[in-house]
Amino acid sequence: MNEREAYVQKMKAKLDEWNADIEKLDAQTRKAQADAKVRYEKQLTELKANRDAAAQKLRELQNASVDAWESMRRGTEAAWADMAKAFREAAERFK
Prior knowledge:
Blueprint: H1 3-31, H2 34-63, H3 66-94
């Protein structure tokens, strides 16, 4: 497995982890009382949008030419760092 394939696999694994986290938070939202539920639903909507953007970046990275791959990887890493931060913050708000 070359560096690019290993990186893509790592990002796919992280995306799977985020999907599982979203499922857990979604379950909490369904259990929440009305006022908290509205707030949780808003946060979940934002997380799902961020996750979808990260998945799109991953697809772009997978389809990038060899020459563009390194440049795109740096941009993808920044987007994924933002996503990780959003998940951490959302998890704190759900506690």
